[in-house]
Specification:
Elements: H1 27-32, H2 47-50, H3 52-82, H4 89-121, E1 138-139, E2 145-146, H5 152-182, H6 187-190, H7 193-211, H8 213-216, E3 221-226, E4 231-236, H9 252-287, H10 292-296, H11 309-340, H12 346-358, H13 363-370, H14 372-383, H15 389-393
Antiparallel strand pairs: 1-2, 3-4
């Protein structure tokens, strides 16, 4: 069975400048080199990656994941919107995070399901598959050739933008909690609803602008569906087997990701250090080992003002959110490093991308375990249609 090597693709959320392999041709580059449109499409990955059983299991997993993402985030949005106690800056940030996660479950995952089913059912790939390299071009009224529209030009930036929104929102949630822990008396003055909504809008605009940056500032990139990751990935157009000279623009993606994740980790360390000092001082006061005079002010290295128990618990919840996102992000980082040194990990790329995608349904689980108000809201949501028996009698 003839096959091309995997096309050189760049992850939508962690794109880096990839090193060329022994045969660094993707289908787009082959088309530019003169590949005829009538030639049959060669598979982009091995049989163990793209076999019928493998595709079937992948589709079942994708459908289950899409259902979990949509249902979980719909419940999250409903609870936060209908609960008055959630109409706070922290609640708005959680709503923003839930919307970004739900967009992944509504647009990104179903598109991969549709593409995989099309590749299994039909012998020929969809007309748009792999862009202009395999799809027949139609003739326009002006006499030029027009390639079919590539849906990945929409799905790819959506996935990348939503990933950036998730990272930036978690960073903003961490900052909000740090203010509540370190400056509890100034929290209401510094963190207002208006400022929070403005920061949310800026994070969405900046995230999607960054996701579109390779397409806006360069004409040497496209988006194609990759059979290894089962995702729409950024693909540099190769010229004589060489990467374009402006491929460095892709380094904006990992720079943004790692900068925000590093900043989030640093802020969490400062907040949890303050919480630990406060908890230590409180324990010493309860044991009588520390006088009230030493614990009332800022002496002893503690907080000048005591944060509330709810603020401390919310900070710990956001710390768990950060840990979960970082853990789901780590396989992508490993995959990127492997590509940089010249390895092509087809099967691992699938797990790396979809572990990150699976994080979109983790937040509702964390809220359910850590937030008693959220659990109460979910209980009221599902019991709303059930009227109490004594209510019917009255």
């Amino acid at each position: 069975m003839t096959a091309l090597l995997p096309n050189i693709t760049v992850p939508g959320s962690t794109a880096v400048l990839l090193a060329t392999t022994d045969c660094p041709f993707n289908l787009t580059a082959a088309a530019q080199a003169g590949l005829s449109s009538g030639q049959s499409l060669a598979p982009l990955c091995t049989l163990c990656c793209c076999g019928f059983l493998n595709r079937t299991l992948a589709v079942v997993f994708m459908v289950s994941l899409a259902f979990a993402i949509v249902v979980g985030n719909v419940v999250t949005l409903t609870v936060f919107v209908q609960t008055r106690q959630s109409r706070t800056p922290q609640g708005y940030l959680k709503v923003s995070l839930a919307i970004a996660d739900m967009m992944v479950g509504v647009l990104v995952v179903p598109f991969s399901v549709y593409t995989e089913i099309s590749l299994m059912v039909t012998n020929n790939p969809p007309i748009w598959y792999q862009g202009s390299s395999t799809s027949p071009a139609s003739t326009s009224s002006l006499g030029g050739l027009v390639s079919p529209w590539q849906p990945c030009m929409l799905i790819g930036p959506v996935f990348a933008g939503c990933t950036f929104v998730s990272i930036s929102t978690i960073f903003l949630m961490t900052l909000e909690r740090s203010v509540a822990i370190l400056r509890p008396l100034h929290k209401d003055a510094l963190v207002t609803r208006r400022r929070t909504l403005l920061l949310i809008l800026l994070s969405w605009a900046a995230s999607f602008l960054l996701a579109l940056a390779p397409l806006i500032f360069s004409s040497n990139f496209t988006l194609e569906y990759n059979e290894c990751s089962r995702m729409c990935n950024y693909t540099p157009l190769l010229f004589r087997s060489q990467l374009p000279p402006d491929a460095n623009i892709l380094l904006l993606f990992p720079a943004f990701d790692f900068t925000l994740l590093g900043g989030t980790l640093a802020v969490n360390i400062v907040s949890f250090t303050s919480i630990r000092r406060y908890s230590r001082k409180r324990k010493l006061l309860s044991e009588g080992s520390l006088s009230d005079g030493g614990g009332g002010g800022g002496g002893g290295g503690g907080c000048p003002h005591r944060p509330s128990f709810s603020d401390i618990k919310a900070a710990k919840t956001i710390g768990i959110l950060t840990f979960a996102f970082t853990a789901s992000f780590s396989p992508i980082a490993v995959f990127v490093l492997g590509n940089v040194v010249g390895y092509t990990w087809c099967n691992f790329s699938f797990f790396a991308f979809w572990i990150l995608t699976g994080n979109s349904c983790c937040n509702v689980i964390i809220y359910s375990v850590r937030d008693h108000r959220f659990r109460k809201g979910v209980t009221l949501l599902f019991q709303r249609d059930r009227s109490p028996p004594h209510g019917e009698k009255t």
